[in-house]
Specification:
The complex is a heterodimer of chains A (526) and B (293). Chain A is built from 23 helices and four strands. Chain A is mainly α. Chain A has two domains: 274 residues, no CATH class; 192 residues, no CATH class. Chain B folds into two domains: 212 residues, Rossmann fold, CATH 3.40.50.300; 72 residues, no CATH class. Chain B has ten helices and 14 strands. Chain B has a six-stranded mixed sheet, sandwiched between helices. Chain B has a four-stranded antiparallel sheet with strand order 2-1-4-5, covered by helices on one side.
Chain lengths: 526, 293
């Protein structure tokens, strides 16, 4: 093994082991396995043409599970692996690497391969699960390993490579590195899948190839009759009424070359990421840091000048202002502090957009404000809410804060209240209109939403220690539930039919309780 | 005012015993907690600051058990951890105001104390600079300021001078001396000179156990007549290192001046006055010999 490959191997291995030993990996893996179970239990299926599904043979099960990987895993997996550069930065290992002769291109390619290795390990687990699944569902025998596994190898794995490279690109681009990138990726993913399904070219998720192959099988079964060429991956909803036999994709050289092209595209993305990669230069690591430096240029004295001051303090400790009587009545001040911490660093345009949305809530007709503008107003502060509950671990301030008196209830309650204030203020236009119209059911739904969102953020932040889980889950939930007014998932309550204020009030209370339990776990003495 | 640590042990996992049957009773004054890396100092500090629970044993503050009433100590505690973070988008004043709110201080007093504390730790000039732009030493001074916000009766500082330049280190030592009086200060460090300058009591900790707890004078008395200086050619230094416990060496024109600890004077040596560093090395060596035996 030559030197470069050996270094690549060790970098990928170290990174891989570090990540698969994390709790988040197991959670996503469990989710992926549940998805695999969903395939066999017919909770997830593909509908072709006029309500057809394939007979559960090796080809169909392999295709179904592979497409679940290339769609769902490319979304969840992105958030799992989008931390490889960040981790090297926070652990300071990056600075050690930066002092070696390693080239930036090599680093970004190695990190992409490492991202891919993590995602591929999940695919491998699902490949093994696929065998078990077909054995458990004896609709068609025998098990053909090539037909079962080829979609994983040629559909899912290239999709995982693209996902891994995109995660790295997002990490190296300063604008996309944080929460904004997490939210944007969801929309990139959504529109990417939609565009791929419409396109006549092969898409990273491989939907096009499978659609063409299943359509041909339908045409063979029913020549001239298959006018409906629908191909949809479905969770829940209507089951297939008829079956057809599909024996898998004809893996011609052309098709295989298309799929391998996506690996080349992933490599290209990794090389592109090297252009933006900061090589752990502290001056380039954070946009905020850069801005802070610029801001400080005019106001701050150089650190060196501090050393020429006399060694004796200007003021002795005994001369400090004595403390007044302390009590527990400072809750409002703590809420204000939490609120100020939450909005700290926001630029003027953030407020401009929030104010614009608030005005739009006031001036739009009530139904439009409730179904449309409020949704935008409550997706806009996602990155404010996502800091809740995890700020202490993110900035390593736990030991300073968790040693304070009554911290479990006072600080957590203040943080929760601050999150609710953000929801109430940004959604105030709609709330007031609903109050004026005396539509109490809608007011209850609006209020339940305002309680539910920060409660969800707080619980996920406390338990995951990261803002990412809320950013990903909330965006997906917002898209699936409120935007499509899906009953029981619509936490905003956009319409009478879809709103369930009682459910979301109960959920908010449950999530608050979960936050308290999570924080109790973090604080040695509750 | 009394802090009682009673048979406290802390175990991480099945094999790591960070603290073992640790007992100590403290009254007002500065306790310098000395020990090598990995001795268990930070674990003890973390337990006293109510960040970590001990596996066994009890800690009492003025007779109140912390396991049942952690707020008894939290309300009077100032804690500077060894590793801590700051919010990079806040300036010094905003950060301290936030922590003052968390500690339940009223805003008028907090504002005045923050100004005064920033002056005390010499950060007034950069009070409006975002913390993300602070150097390591400046962050450490912010840590010192936050620990003093609530005028603590119990001040726990873990490696407080790490990252400070020599001048700031002297300033901090002076501050610690100012602080002593009607409060308990626990200063954990492996820098003997920090302890030498400020501590009224010294605790030596090694391998999770309390090796010694005494006044500095008593520790020095224990090595009186056991510290020697030996001038030798540099070629003999390696052999001497194998034979004796050496606390310092200095190369001069007449050879290497070796400071060593021994009950019996080696030939050609002259007695010298012991320092706290000598006492520290001697106690640790005795403890390790005892454990090995």
């Amino acid at each position: 093994m030559n030197h470069t490959l050996r270094v690549l191997y060790h970098m990928v291995k170290a990174d891989f082991l570090e990540r698969v030993r994390r709790y988040s990996f197991l959670v996503i893996l469990a989710g992926a396995l549940y998805l695999a179970y969903g395939v066999i239990a017919e909770k997830v299926w593909i509908l072709v043409g006029d309500g057809y599904r394939g007979v559960y043979n090796s080809a169909w099960i392999g295709m179904l599970m592979a497409i679940c990987c290339s769609t769902f895993l490319s979304l969840c997996g992105f958030y799992v692996v989008k931390n490889s550069v960040e981790r090297d930065s926070t652990t300071r290992v990056g600075r050690i690497l930066a002092a070696t002769p390693m080239r930036k291109e090599f680093y970004t390619v190695a990190k992409t391969v490492s991202n891919f290795a993590v995602l591929a390990s999940m695919v491998l687990v699902l490949m093994a699960a696929a065998v078990a699944m077909q054995w458990l569902r004896p609709e068609a025998r025998p098990i053909s390993l090539w037909k079962l596994w080829s979609p994983f190898l040629l559909i899912a794995l290239p999709a995982m490579f693209v996902t891994g490279s995109l995660a790295l690109l997002f990490e190296t681009l300063p604008v996309l590195r944080g929460g904004v990138g997490n939210v944007i990726y969801f929309f990139v993913w959504t529109f990417g899948l939609a565009a791929g399904a419409e396109s006549s070219f092969d898409d990273p998720a491989g939907i096009g190839i499978l659609e063409i192959s299943t359509r041909r099988a339908m045409e063979r079964m029913n020549p001239g009759g298959g006018k409906n060429s629908a191909f949809s991956l479905t969770i829940g909803g209507e089951h297939a009424s008829r079956t057809f036999l599909w024996n898998g994709v004809d893996w011609t050289l052309h098709v295989v070359a298309w799929r391998l092209t996506w690996v080349a595209v992933g490599l290209g993305v990794a090389l592109l990421a090297s252009v933006f990669f900061h090589r752990f230069d502290p001056a380039r690591e954070s946009i905020k840091g850069k801005k802070a430096k610029e801001k400080n240029k005019n106001t701050a004295v150089d650190d060196l000048s501090l050393t020429v001051e006399p060694a004796q303090p200007k003021l002795g400790y005994a001369a400090l202002t004595p403390l007044g009587p302390r009590g527990h009545s400072r809750f409002a001040r703590l809420v204000l502090s939490e609120l100020s911490l939450m909005v700290k660093g926001l630029r003027w345009w953030w407020y401009a957009v929030a104010a614009g949305l608030l005005v739009a809530e006031f001036v739009s007709p009530t139904p439009q404000a409730r179904e449309g503008v409020l949704l935008a107003a409550w997706i806009w502060p996602t990155l404010l809410w996502s800091q809740m509950g995890c700020r202490e671990s993110r900035y390593a301030t736990q030991s300073l804060i968790f040693s304070a008196e009554s911290v479990l209830y006072r600080q957590l309650a203040a943080l929760w209240t601050a999150g609710i204030v953000v929801a109430l203020v940004t959604g105030a236009g709609t709330g007031l209109r609903l109050l004026v119209s005396l539509d109490w059911q809608a007011v209850a739904a609006w209020f339940a939403g305002a309680l539910f969102i920060p409660s969800l953020a707080l619980a996920l932040g406390v338990w995951s220690g990261s803002s990412k889980l809320f950013e990903a889950l909330y965006t997906v939930w917002w898209y699936v539930g409120p935007l499509h007014q899906l009953p029981s998932l619509d936490f905003v309550g956009g319409s009478r039919a879809s709103s369930s204020p009682g459910l979301y009030l109960i959920l908010a209370a449950g999530l608050l309780l979960a936050s308290c339990l999570g924080r109790r776990r973090q604080v040695a003495y509750g | 005012m009394k802090l009682t640590i009673d048979h406290v042990s802390k175990r991480y996992g099945a094999h790591t015993l960070a603290l073992e049957d640790f007992s100590l009773e403290l009254g007002p004054g500065v306790l310098g907690l000395l020990g090598p890396n990995g001795a268990g100092k930070t674990t003890l500090m973390s337990i006293l600051a109510t960040i970590t629970r001990p596996t066994s044993g009890t800690i009492r503050w003025n007779g109140t058990d912390l396991a049942a009433h952690p707020n008894a100590i939290r309300s009077v505690l100032g804690y500077l951890p060894q590793d801590f973070g700051v919010y990079p988008n806040l300036d010094a004043v905003e950060f301290l105001e936030y922590l003052a709110a968390v500690k339940g201080l009223d805003s008028a007093t907090a504002r005045r104390r923050i100004d005064e504390l920033l002056n005390l730790v010499n950060l007034t000039e950069v009070r409006k600079r975002l913390l993300g732009g602070y150097s390591g030493g400046m962050r450490q001074r912010i840590g010192i300021a936050q620990a003093l916000l609530n005028d603590p009766s119990l001040l726990i500082v873990d490696e407080p001078t790490a990252g400070l330049d020599p001048e700031e280190r002297v300033r901090f030592r002076n501050l610690l001396s100012d602080l002593s009086g009607e409060r308990i200060v626990i200063l954990s460090t492996h820098i003997v000179s920090d302890v030498e300058a400020t501590a009224t009591d010294i605790g030596l900790i090694s391998q999770g156990r309390l090796v010694a707890h005494a006044a500095p004078e008593d520790l020095l008395a224990a090595v009186e007549g056991k510290v020697w200086e030996w001038v030798m050619p540099s070629s003999e230094l390696n052999a001497a290192k194998h034979q004796y416990l050496i606390s310092n060496t200095a190369r001069r024109s007449d050879g290497v001046h070796v400071r060593l600890l021994s009950s019996q004077p080696p030939p050609g040596t002259s007695p010298v006055a012991p320092t706290l560093e000598d006492a520290y090395l001697f106690c640790l060596s005795e403890h390790r010999s005892g454990v090995a035996a």
